[in-house]
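ESCALATION

Customer reports they have been waiting on this structure for their group meeting. Please prioritize. Original submission:
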Amino acid sequence: MTVLVIAEHDNATLKASTLNTVSAAFQCGDGIHILVAGHECGAVAEAAAQVAGVSKVLLADAPHLADGLAENVAEQALAIAGDYTHIMAPANAFGKNVLPRVAARLDVQQISEITAVISPDTFERPIYAGNAIATVQSSDPVKVITVRITNFAPAEPGFAASPIEGVAVASDAGNSRFVSRDLSKSERPELSGARVVVAGGRGLGSAEEFKIVEQLADKLGAAVGATRAVVDAGYAPNDWQIGQTGKIIAPDLYIGLGISGAIQHIAGIKDAKTIVAINSDPDAPIFLVADYGIVGDAHELVPQLIAELG
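Update from on-call: job pushed to the front of the queue and completed.
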């Protein structure tokens, strides 16, 4: 069984999510190929070739692949799909945009957000906002799969580079075009891969009061997160949202301030190694999943904690 992993990248660097996806792919087949589709992305292909266990890197380099438009990346994957039993990508905005198009064109059912591989045709995935785990088995000739990256350790660099092979470039799909990209810049770690995350909820009361989350995060060198209610209220930007409709994270330490613990948010943090919650409501549901819970006012406790941290 040969598995195709579609690489996520920015034409300069290989995203860490691809390494986690490769780890899941190892459990599905004995031959792992990585497709790098982009423009002037030779450095990405070289990085992919260094991943342990990868037997080949397929490089598709063309201007219409430069911006990672899902329609064009999907066309490129479909052009070589006949050689593979599995096609995989991370279960993030990239993978969720590309693979449904691939599955539809192949007339197979996509298997979304797998958290474990039981066998090459059987997988576990969360349902009901993570409150239950479904075991699904596919009889499709090609398994199209998105991988919840927090459940798989990243693949390690190898001792020798695998070969890089150029492939025929699929034509521009022509039904979408790149307009612009608005990137947020921050000195803080990226939320999805941060080792420490400090998040705030609606209980903080206002955008001004939410700043204590950022202050504590900066003191700890942490990423900043938020609940959907906070994002909807305009206290925090969309890319800080954690949960079922936001980002799924698995940091070493998660600190939640003024977060009640709705199941949609818990679905995004339950894989954290240590969960600390501060909430004035002793019956807040987040205390049911927290390793350490403090009943109190975050506006009083957090400044004390920051002072202790020096």
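Sent to customer with the following note: The CA atoms of residues 141 and 284 lie 47 Å apart.
Escalation resolved.
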